[in-house]
């Protein structure tokens, strides 16, 4: 069976972490992925299904705490930093570097969403393979 990631012919390899973090199209898809991961983790904690959205300020703070801010251009809004977090997370998932289950488990292990997302971003950064 072919790898799941081979279905995504639109995916391009990135040569640097900065290229991943500033990919706006990835960020758009990443928004949905991060919200799915958070919704699944929250639902598991509550014992019932619930759809949740992660605020941009929370993602931006997690990106800073994960030490990823240094890979971004100097003048970035909080919104752009949140986009970067979403882009990296979905890039790692699309490239089979981290699974949906691993992403949810990381959030479940943390009592604080910012810390959970920080751990998820650090795991994604460590796992991605750049060309």
Describe what you observe in this structure.
It is a single chain. The protein has helices spanning 17-21, 24-46, 56-65, 78-94, 100-108, 113-127. It is mostly helical. The longest helix has 23 residues, at 24-46. The chain contains six helices and no strands. Helix 2 packs across helix 5 (100-108), helix 3 (56-65) crosses helix 4 (78-94) and helix 4 (78-94) crosses helix 6. The chain has a single domain (14-127), classed as Ribonuclease III (Ribonuclease iii, N-terminal Endonuclease Domain, Chain A, Orthogonal Bundle).
Summarize the structure.
60% of the residues lie in helices and 0% in strands. By secondary structure, it is mainly α.
What is this structure's SSE topology?
Elements lengths: L16 H5 L2 H23 L9 H10 L12 H17 L5 H9 L4 H15 L4
Helix pairs in contact: 2-4, 2-5, 3-4, 3-6, 4-6, 5-6
Quaternary state reads: single chain
Give Rg in angstroms.
14 Å
How many β-strand stretches?
0
Query: How many separate structural domains?
Result: 1
CATH homologous superfamily - what is it? Ribonuclease III
Spell out the key features of this protein.
mainly alpha; 0% strand; Ribonuclease iii, N-terminal Endonuclease Domain, Chain A; single chain; 131 residues
